[in-house]
Design brief:
Layout lengths: L3 E10 L2 E6 L2 E6 L2 H6 L6 E10 L4 E6 L2 H11 L6 H10 L2 H10 L2 H4 L7 H18 L19 H12 L4 H4 L12 H14 L1
Helix pairs in contact: 2-3, 4-7, 6-7, 7-9
Length: 201
C-alpha cells in the first residue's frame, strides 16, 4: 500500500495529476478541489493516496488532505459507488459539505456531482448515516459521552460531531481538537476548523 507521494508535479489534467518521486512518475486520479490546492507544475507537493487494485488495472487516487481521503474511502464503501463517482462528488463538494449532507439526510446536495442520480444519492445518505449510528448509537451526542468535558457539546458543535462521524471520526477523537473553536460558528466552519487541527497533528 502506498500511503503518500512527495515529489514534483510534472502534469495536471482534469481529475489527474502526475507526481515524480525518485525519477518515477506516479499518475493519480484526483478531485478538482485537490488540483486547485496544488502548487504550479514543476513545484513539489505531497498527496495522501489510496490504491485501487482490480483484475485489469492498478490505480492510485491522490488527495491534498486526510479529510478528503477519509471521505473518499467512506463514499466508496457504499454499494454502487466506485472511485470515479466518489471523485466526482468530492470535485463539487468538500468533505465538510458531504458530511453535512449525509448527517442532514440531504441527498439532493449529492446529485450536484456528475453521475449521481437521486437513487444513488439516497443510497449514499442512507448507508453512511447507518454507519454514523454505529459510531454514535443514539444518533445524539451527550455531554457525558465526550472527553474533554471542557468542550461545550451543544447546538452546532453537536451537529458538527455527528457530521464528522460520517468521515469516520468518533466523538472522543474529534472533541480534543475543538478546544478554542467558537461554538457559535456555522456547522461547516466548525467541521473545517476541526479537520485543520487534526491535519496539523
Amino acid at each position: 500500500m502506498i500511503y503518500s507521494l512527495n515529489g514534483k508535479i510534472i502534469l495536471t489534467e482534469p481529475n489527474t495529476v502526475v507526481i515524480e518521486c525518485g525519477g518515477v512518475g506516479y499518475k493519480c486520479l484526483t478531485t478538482i478541489n485537490t488540483i486547485r490546492a496544488l502548487p504550479e507544475t514543476g513545484e513539489n507537493t505531497m498527496l495522501y493516496t489510496h490504491m485501487l487494485v482490480r483484475e485489469d488495472a492498478v490505480e492510485l487516487c491522490g488527495f491534498a488532505d486526510k479529510s478528503e481521503l477519509n471521505c473518499f474511502r467512506m463514499l466508496t464503501s457504499v454499494s454502487g459507488v466506485g472511485a470515479k463517482v466518489a471523485i466526482a462528488i468530492l470535485s463539487v463538494l468538500t468533505p465538510e459539505q458531504v458530511a453535512l449532507a449525509v448527517s442532514a439526510g440531504d441527498s439532493k446536495m449529492l446529485t450536484k456531482a456528475s453521475g449521481v442520480g437521486n437513487k444513488l444519492a439516497q443510497r449514499i445518505t442512507l448507508e453512511l448515516k447507518d454507519k454514523v449510528k454505529t459510531i454514535i448509537p443514539s444518533g445524539k451526542i451527550s455531554q457525558a459521552d465526550i472527553i474533554p468535558a471542557a468542550v461545550p457539546v451543544e447546538g452546532n458543535v453537536s451537529k458538527a460531531i455527528e457530521a464528522l462521524a460520517v468521515l469516520g471520526y468518533t466523538p472522543d477523537e474529534v472533541t480534543p481538537f475543538m478546544t478554542g473553536i467558537d461554538p457559535g460558528l456555522p456547522v461547516e466552519k466548525i467541521i473545517g476548523e476541526t479537520l485543520k487541527a487534526i491535519g496539523k497533528k
